[in-house]
């Protein structure tokens, strides 16, 4: 079920945007005209990925520097071994919706 999260204008390019739903943390990352939604907590060890940084299309965890592909959630660089879950995103009338 798609849930409204924010307006497109609230997102800054290559900057993780944090939101919570039902006690879970998620992030949105805008890359150009595309928006991606991923789990907000690192799969290696508890770390809030909205405090990480994005270089090109790679998200780096702020704790142990695990890296994830923003487009797929797949691990690029350990120590993380499990990918981040990716969620479907749609934009309607300037609002961002995520299927969580």
**Count of individual beta strands:** 11
Unreliable segments (pLDDT under 50, ≥5 consecutive)? none
Number of domains: 1
Mean pLDDT: 97
CATH top level assignment: Mainly Beta
The CATH topology turns out to be Rieske Iron-sulfur Protein
Roughly how many Å apart are the termini?
Answer: 6 Å
Strand order across the biggest sheet? 2-3-4-9
Give a quick account of the main beta sheet: strands, pairing sense, barrel closure: 4 strands, antiparallel
CATH superfamily: Rieske [2Fe-2S] iron-sulphur domain
Can you tell me the overall shape?
Answer: globular
| H/E series | EEEEEEEEEEE
Provide structural commentary.
With 100 residues, the chain is mostly beta strands. It has strands at residues 2-7, 17-21, 24-31, 34-39, 53-55, 58-60, 67-69, 75-77, 86-87, 89-92, 95-99. The protein has a single domain (2-99), classed as Rieske [2Fe-2S] iron-sulphur domain (Rieske Iron-sulfur Protein, 3-layer Sandwich), CATH 2.102.10. It is globular.
Topology diagram in text:
Elements: E1 2-7, E2 17-21, E3 24-31, E4 34-39, E5 53-55, E6 58-60, E7 67-69, E8 75-77, E9 86-87, E10 89-92, E11 95-99
Antiparallel strand pairs: 1-11, 2-3, 3-4, 4-9, 5-6, 6-7, 7-8, 10-11
């Amino acid at each position: 079920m798609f849930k409204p999260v924010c307006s497109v204008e609230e997102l800054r390019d290559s900057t993780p945007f944090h939101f919570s739903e039902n006690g879970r943390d998620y992030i949105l990352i805008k890359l150009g005209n595309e928006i991606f939604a991923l789990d907000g907590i690192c799969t290696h060890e508890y770390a809030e990925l909205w405090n990480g940084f994005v270089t090109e299309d790679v998200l780096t965890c702020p704790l142990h520097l695990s890296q994830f592909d923003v487009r797929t959630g797949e691990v690029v660089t350990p120590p993380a071994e499990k990918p981040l879950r990716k969620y479907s995103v749609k934009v309607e009338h300037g609002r961002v919706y995520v299927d969580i």
